[in-house]
Amino acid sequence: SLAGVDALLFDIQDIGSRTYTYISTLGEAMHACAEHRKPLWVLDRPNPIGGRLAEGPVMPEQWRNFIGWGPMPVTHGMTVGEVARFFKDTLGIACDLHVVPMRGWRRTMVWSDTALAWTQTSPHIPGTVQAHLYVATGMVAMSTTNLSDGVGTTLPFEVVVADFLDAPRLAAELDAQRLPGVRFQALAVKPFYGGFKDQPLRGVRLHLTDAHAFEPLRTAVTILATIERLHPGRIAYAEEKIIGRHWGETTLPARLRAGEAPADILAGWRDAMQPFLDARRAALLYR
After folding, report:
1. What are the beta bridge partners of residue 189?
2. Which of 53, 99, 196, 200 could form a disulfide with 191 if both were Cys (CB 3.0 to 4.6 A apart)?
3. Which pLDDT tens digit goes with each residue over 120-175?
4. Closest CA to 149 of 132, 168, 167, 162
């Protein structure tokens, strides 16, 4: 497919999560361009959740897959241009890479600071709220078989719901933990398509109150831990390979069932992140 191409242009808006596959496509394109000696130009775009946030386990080679393509945590705090530079250096991809940088973007910016209009990046990311909440609710739902992130309703990635949750109690317990940048509201929904079609579900809606302070993966772990505490043994976790492909490690369900505090789980991941942060630093284009 590259035979008649002089150069490949990557001009796609990402949302800042390792599991959102546009950067995986970027990595595959880099390999293809290296193999066929075609230059790759990346027109850089903002990371809508900012350029500082990095959370979660770094994906090891053991679990590398299309939703965990490179050795980075779940949120990585890079633009697509910086991700390309990171892939080139850390994975040794001999690609003739050219990044066209943005003007005026800073690492502290989230999407609302850019004054740019949002264009829907995929069917369930119609707005910037979903871009911010995608990790918080998506990682919960993708790690389980009986919790929904709202895909199939008019609130994709804005909720965590199931058929067994005590919605008012869950909302109160989560609000009491004062997670930064988010508040919780009890609600009931009935999805009109998808895996939970026509099932009455209850749970919480996430209201983003401060996009700069919000920590999506911390929020995801806290939601799972709180549900485990309120409804012991009711979460049906996905099989080990699904957990590994999403999280980059497989111990999380057992640690949550054992009652380990979210702060301790997150601290262990932070302690192991320094090699990634060192490699990331060389790839950054903006202050």
Report:
1. 201
2. 196
3. 999 999 999 999 999 999 999 999 999 999 999 999 999 999 999 999 999 999 99
4. 162
